[in-house]
Amino acid sequence: MPVGRNGEVRCLKRRDVIDALADALPPKTIRFGCKAISVEEDPQSMSPLLQLTDARVVRAKVLIGCDGLYSKVANYLGLRPTSVSAVGSVRGLTNYPKGHCFPSASIRMKRDHGVANLVGRIPINDKLVYWFVGIKMSQLDGKYPNDPELVKQETLKHVTGFPAHAIEMIAKSNVGSVSFAHLRYRLQWEIMMGKFYKGSVTVLGDAMHAMGPFLGQGGSATLEDAVVFARNMGQKILYSGQSDEGGQQIMNPERIEEAFDQYVKERRNRIIRLSLQAHLIGVILGSTSSVAKFIAVFILLTVFRDQSAHSKYDCGKL
After folding, report:
1. Mean pLDDT of residues grouped by 10 in the chain (318 residues)?
2. Which part of the chain is the FAD-binding domain (predicted)?
3. DSSP per-residue letters across 204-248
4. Closest CA to 116 of 94, 138, 93
5. pLDDT value at position 246?
6. What pLDDT does 306 receive?
């Protein structure tokens, strides 16, 4: 989808992005089948101790929490739990073996009534299309199902009245790709004031700035985090020049905190704007208050006049 004069937006499968990133790492860098359940500080070394579900404890020199909406690392830093949005989202993929006829641009179809008030699609290639449906949670009679097949059938009931090609797209979707999520976000004032690092511990991605997917920038913002973080870490002399008993260099904690501080400063303004813009769109889609919707529209038109400016951001080079 063209954006501006020199840019474009592409829709990628999350698995493809993860595989590309993982393939660039040395063998055995990634440990599978484990999950963090708590983070504590070693009273002697002041190093973070990561407790895993398999009872193992990992002592880290530097801990970077990329553990999502329910981040244990964010809890350790004293950040509040993420807040529940008024909007839910159903997402899926539809494969067209003979090819689809949709243009490459991102399309959103919106209406003001019903449980489902938004249907959108973004082609990934000439045969695969990513689609999403916005669910107004206040209009639901009960809970949305979790089983993919039930999610698909429930969604088809709510999209009645949308164009036939949109309904057909959902009906023909790959069941295994269909999922529902009640969206969550981090409050804007906490992003403005939150302490996103402590000692040698910090957070990136949703653990830092969870937001609704209305701008399609969640994954991109996380990659931006990684670039800015790595650049600041690389610019600091992280080692003290001394070695431990095993011959490994001892990291300089002051330099680490300096790098973390600069990383947070660089990212804060960017994610405040992203989060606010996404939140305002969420209010328009999910709120039952006409006043709240009017205020959200007014702020969007006043503060975010260029609706695609967020996609033109340059986080710099490594």
Report:
1. 52 87 89 87 88 88 92 95 93 95 89 90 94 91 90 95 95 95 93 93 95 87 94 76 66 86 95 94 89 94 87 84
2. 24-235
3. -THHHH---GGGS-HHHHHHHHHHHHHHHHHHS--EEEEE-TTSP
4. 138
5. 66
6. 85
Domains located in the chain, CATH noted: 31-82+186-312 (3.50.50.60), 85-185 (3.30.9.30)
d(CA 110, CA 108): 6
At 223, the amino acid letter reads L
Half-sphere exposure of 16 (CA within 13 A, CB side): 5
Cβ atoms of 54 and 32 closer than 8 Å? no
For residue 302, the number of C-alpha atoms closer than 13 Å in the C-beta half-sphere is 8
Residue 251, strand partner residues: 239
Two tokens, residue 290: 């006409």
- Indicate the pTM of the whole model: 0.86
Provide the pLDDT for residue 243: 64
Q: Residue 156: its pLDDT value, please?
A: 96
- Residues 65, 74 contacting (CB under 8 angstroms): yes
The CA-atom distances, in angstroms, between 262 and each of 67, 196, 230 are: 22, 11, 11
Task: Measure Cα distances from 237 to 17, 96, 130, 147, 249 in Å.
Answer: 31, 52, 44, 50, 12
Q: What per-residue confidence (pLDDT) applies to 113?
A: 84
**pLDDT of amino acid 201:** 95
Residue with tokens 């690392």: 73
